[in-house]
């Protein structure tokens, strides 16, 4: 499948170019650890992060099209044990053979959606995000050269799609919601886009992206 079809992106954000994205991420620190106040489900809902953490990395892939930039997202398959059917960023656990989080994010993106690593220019990373399920995620930001021939991992990925970066950058689309989970209130971000429901860690990392690019 040729990754050339794009969801309507709307007008591009004035002044936000690939060079601007590079500049705003260039000097960011390598990411926060727990001891330095990392972001996570615990910072939204209160409480402490899990004591045992599994290192993971995701790729926030930003594409550039004539009508605006977009971010690549996936819909997970419905039969998975964890996070079935949810919207996610390409990524997963950092394996012992991975040199670093960047290598892990690129490897996972290639395995999940067929994105060749040489189509990605890494421009930085966002704050480390800790999930309530015990993952310590390094969000790696890259500029993706399109088109590329996408190839989905049919076991994990039901669909690959794009969301306009302009939508993600608009604070009006960052909804804060809460619900009861195992007897306590949990707060989380939601970015409702068309018929998609982007929430949880994915939404929180996209909100962090918007904060950085708006700086």
Examine the secondary-structure arrangement and name the CATH architecture: Alpha-Beta Complex
The whole-angstrom Rg is 16 Å
Report helical residue fraction: 10-25%
Total number of beta strands = 12
- Number of structural domains: 1
Put simply, the count of helices is 5
Distance between the termini: 36 Å
Structural class: alpha+beta
Stretches where pLDDT is under 50 for at least 5 consecutive residues are 1-13, 30-36
Just give the CATH class.
Alpha Beta
What's the CATH topology name?
Answer: Nucleoside Triphosphate Pyrophosphohydrolase
Give a summary of the structure in a few sentences:
With 215 residues, the protein is of the alpha+beta class. It is built from 5 helices and 12 strands. A hairpin with a 4-residue loop joins β7 and β8 (135-144).
Written description of the protein model:
This protein is of the alpha+beta class. It has a single domain (18-213), classed as Nucleoside Triphosphate Pyrophosphohydrolase. 21% of the residues lie in helices and 35% in strands. It is built from 5 helices and 12 strands. It has helices at residues 18-26, 41-45, 101-113, 165-169, 200-213; strands spanning 39-40, 54-65, 68-76, 87-88, 91-93, 120-125, 129-130, 135-144, 157-164, 175-181, 184-193, 196-199. The strands form 2 sheets. Strands 1, 2, 3, 4, 5, 6, 7, 8 and 9 form a 9-stranded mixed β-sheet that branches. The chain is globular. The protein starts with 17 loop residues before the first helix and ends with a helix. The model is unreliable at 1-13 and 30-36 (pLDDT under 50).
């Amino acid at each position: 499948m040729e990754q050339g079809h794009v969801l309507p992106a709307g007008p591009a954000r004035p002044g936000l170019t690939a060079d601007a994205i590079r500049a705003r991420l260039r000097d960011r620190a390598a990411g926060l650890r727990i001891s330095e106040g990392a972001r996570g489900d615990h910072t939204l809902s209160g409480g402490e992060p899990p004591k045992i953490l599994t290192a993971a990395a995701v790729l926030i892939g930003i594409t550039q099209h004539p009508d605006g930039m977009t971010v690549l997202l996936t819909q997970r398959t419905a039969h998975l044990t964890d996070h079935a059917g949810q919207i996610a960023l390409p990524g997963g656990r950092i394996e012992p053979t991975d040199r670093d989080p960047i290598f892990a994010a690129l490897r996972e993106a290639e395995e999940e959606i067929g994105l060749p690593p040489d189509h990605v220019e890494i421009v930085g990373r966002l704050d480390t995000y800790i999930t309530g399920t015990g993952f310590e995620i390094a969000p790696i930001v890259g500029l993706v050269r399109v088109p590329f021939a996408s190839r989905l991992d049919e076991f994990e990925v039901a669909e690959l799609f794009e969301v306009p970066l302009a939508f993600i950058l608009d604070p009006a689309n960052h909804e804060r919601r809460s619900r009861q989970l195992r007897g306590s209130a949990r707060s989380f971000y939601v970015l409702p886009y068309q018929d998609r429901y982007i929430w949880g860690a994915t939404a929180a990392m996209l909100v962090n992206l918007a904060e950085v690019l708006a700086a």
